[in-house]
């Protein structure tokens, strides 16, 4: 049996220790917010926190998680009040929602280590793929969540007073998708 703590609860998995954490979470623990995307760690849909670090759960085995602390999207905030979750909604950085849990977990890990990340640090910490292309709004959402984390802002869907929505959108540089999205390296 593999023993670990998932969302602050001790769990024992009676599964092959070589089982990817992703499948233990989804199939045995019924924590289906962690998504299967590619199975090779490229897309980030399966990102969870392991001892506070954002890791791809499709690449880490149960044996490697023995005695560790795992947080899934379900455990990040029971009432969806985490600053990253609130900012993602406020900035409308959610489209189909499939990649969203992994992105939220990556952003939460970043902000727990760095409450004032630069655009480059955000891009480096959140290499997750999003087919819907929410990258510009994602960058704004992480900056908003960072401000919330620093308690310099309150959550509301409106831009700052005196800034037109179009100007606010231009004020934050776009987060560009990884070049691996297309074979030519160009953004679709």
From TrEMBL:
Keyword Cell membrane: no
Region listing for Disordered, in residue ranges: 166-188
UniProt keyword list: 2Fe-2S, Iron, Iron-sulfur, Metal-binding, Oxidoreductase
The name this protein goes by in its record: 2Fe-2S iron-sulfur cluster binding domain-containing protein
GO MF annotation terms: 2 iron, 2 sulfur cluster binding; metal ion binding; oxidoreductase activity
InterPro entries registered for this protein in UniProt: 2Fe-2S-bd (IPR002888), 2Fe-2S-bd_dom_sf (IPR036884), 2Fe-2S_ferredoxin-like_sf (IPR036010), 2Fe-2S_ferredoxin-type (IPR001041), 2Fe2S_fd_BS (IPR006058), Beta-grasp_dom_sf (IPR012675), Diverse_Oxidoreductases (IPR051452)
Annotated source species: Novosphingobium silvae
Keyword Ribosomal protein: no
Membrane-spanning residues: none
Domain 2Fe-2S ferredoxin-type: 1-76
Pfam families: Fer2 (PF00111), Fer2_2 (PF01799)
């Amino acid at each position: 049996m593999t023993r670990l703590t998932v969302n602050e609860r001790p769990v024992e998995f009676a599964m092959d220790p070589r089982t990817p954490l992703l499948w233990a979470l989804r199939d045995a623990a019924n924590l289906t917010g962690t998504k299967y995307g590619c199975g090779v760690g490229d897309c980030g849909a399966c990102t969870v926190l392991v001892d506070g670090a954002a890791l791809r759960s499709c690449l880490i085995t149960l044996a490697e998680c023995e005695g560790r602390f795992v947080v899934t999207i379900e455990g990040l905030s029971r009432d969806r009040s985490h600053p990253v979750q609130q900012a993602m909604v406020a900035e409308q950085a959610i489209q189909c929602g499939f990649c969203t849990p992994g992105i939220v977990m990556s952003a939460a890990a970043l902000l727990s280590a760095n409450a004032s990340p630069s655009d480059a640090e955000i891009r480096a910490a959140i290499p997750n793929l999003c087919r819907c292309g929410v990258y510009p709004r994602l960058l704004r959402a992480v900056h908003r969540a960072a401000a919330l984390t620093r308690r310099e802002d309150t959550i509301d869907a409106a831009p700052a007073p005196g800034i037109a929505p179009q100007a606010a959108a231009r004020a934050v540089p776009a987060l560009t998708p990884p070049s691996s999205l297309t074979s030519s390296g160009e953004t679709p």
